[in-house]
Amino acid sequence: MMQAPAQPKYEIKGKPLIDFNIFQLGNDPSDPMVLELTQEVVRTTNEDFRGNQYVELDLPDLRKGQMLGHSNPYRRWAWGPRARKLYGKDSKGNEIGLLTPGLLELALEYGTLPDGRNTYEDLAVVVYSTTRANSQLAQHLVDQAKRIGQVKFPVVIYGLQTVKDDRFPDGLRFDLGDVAVAYHVPILSRTGKFDASDPELAKTGFPSKLGSGSRTLYIADYGLRRVFRNRYPILDASNAYLSYSSEAGRVSFVKGAAPQNLEAALQAVEAEVGRQEEAISARKARALEILGQH
Fold this sequence. Notes:
Layout: E1 10-12, E2 15-18, E3 21-24, H1 32-48, H2 73-87, E4 96-98, H3 101-110, E5 120-127, H4 135-145, E6 155-164, E7 172-184, E8 192-194, H5 200-204, E9 215-219, E10 224-230, E11 234-239, E12 252-255, H6 262-292
Parallel strand pairs: 9-11
Antiparallel strand pairs: 1-2, 3-12, 4-12, 5-6, 5-10, 6-7, 8-9, 10-11
Helix pairs in contact: 1-2
């Protein structure tokens, strides 16, 4: 079992609500076990995908502090399940899981995502339709997603696993893993600016409305596309090139709360935010009432 370095807890007004840590594959000087995990993940992945240039990766000697790059959706969902299996559970029963769209937004809000302004990270795929871009893979995923619930476009899917399959372009396909999530995101209907403090970001990974703000959402209108954070503040759900990667690509994991309990933790955050907003509204109403009496 391999340990990850500690990171701050997520808090609202000083009260810890979600106790989990974020780490990235690479050579973390604060914890040599991350390097060991990284080496084993890449080694076992290379063995399983030997000959496929979109997954197989030469792992040079990583300098201290150098994170593993060249991520794309294929590598993310090849590395993720293997890292989870290799890590196992710690003494508290905690597992690790890939960073989800909602947790990514929390990490950005609290400044705990390493080097978020100079890197990108794939988070999910979105299916706008089962025609044109990546149509075969889109249909394959939609057929699987229908087995776990109703599918309404555009549908965002994560928690996948990469499988070798010469019947698919690039010789690869995605299957829904045991922690797969598929959900409808209606905001993916147009490109636009959005507010970085939108509370919906921590729930779904996407804003509730578009119009103004410091961040930008890019979308498409057909096919299957990758969803990724592109050098903050861009949130991109428009790119159809699943095989593309560069050194700036990162893969982040969460550790602390077991992956199946993270949704409940987020609900706790939402409930606390709601209580605080109600308290502020009550104080504001009381202040206006007092002003009206004078």
